[in-house]
Amino acid sequence: MPRKIAAGNWKMHGDGAALAEIDALMAANPAPSVDVVICPPATLIHRMVSHIGSHPIAVGGQSCHAAIKGAHTGDIAAGMLVDAGATHVILGHSERRADHGETDAMIQAQLETALSAGLQIILCVGETETQYKAGTTQDIVTAQLRHALPQSDAAARIIIAYEPVWAIGTGLVPQDDEIAAVHAAIRALLCDHFGAAGAEMAILYGGSVKAENAAAIFAIANVDGALVGGASLNAAAFSPIIAALARA
Ligand code: PGA
Questions:
Q1: pLDDT higher for 151 or 165?
Q2: What is the CATH number of domain 4-235?
Q3: Which residue of 4, 143, 171, 189 sits 20 to 30 Å from the alpha carbon of 50, by its own alpha carbon?
Q4: Distance from Cα 28 to the centre of ligand 1, integer Å
Q5: pLDDT at position 30
Q6: Residue 185: its H or E element
Q7: What are phi and psi of 93, to 5 degrees?
Q8: Residue 63 reports pLDDT greater than 90
Q9: Could you state, in order of their start, the residue ranges of all structural domains in the chain?
Q10: Which atom of ligand 1 is nearest to the CA of 210?
């Protein structure tokens, strides 16, 4: 069985005062059976890692450059994330694809660099509203995955997050059977690509996951957790999602 993973994507939210939410999350200690990863802004990674100490909450970055270093103003290298104490990195988030023109080829190169640096990758895929309405969701998602997945035997260090772009931050969520169909297609592709190891990879759903809908989403086959934006920003909203995943 894949590990259960609850990942929080803080996006461009959070300063030093937000570390109080990590205190609250650690105090709630919602579920040892769930791997919790928080991906704060880069400025907070080192402080958050120090703050967490020996508690098993992991910390991740939200992107990294494909190059290991160089003249790339404003970017962050995978090795820098590791140096700051991060163990994970989100790659291919739709906001990076939209805001920074990140292509499948760029994401594939970032993924190789992040693997070389020793990071675990949360690889995001998902269709836009237009693609959803055109009925091309599975084609888009499988094409994004086929472009990004490495040829190396890295299954154990890659987590997939299926995030319909139209569901992110909107309160909209696909029907259960739609999520089930996409996650089944992702599972089949992972097993095709990685063999038996593909069956052990966690596939997260992301897009408007809240305490209210978490249990229903986690009951869907091949949903091994969630990538959570807005509801991960405070412990009171995130803890019940983690608890729902533990019960699933
Ligand atoms: P949301 O964001 O939970 O606020 O919809 C999810 C994401 O973008 O990862």
A1: 165
A2: 3.20.20.70
A3: 4
A4: 22
A5: 65
A6: helix 176-194
A7: -60, 145
A8: yes
A9: 4-235
A10: 3
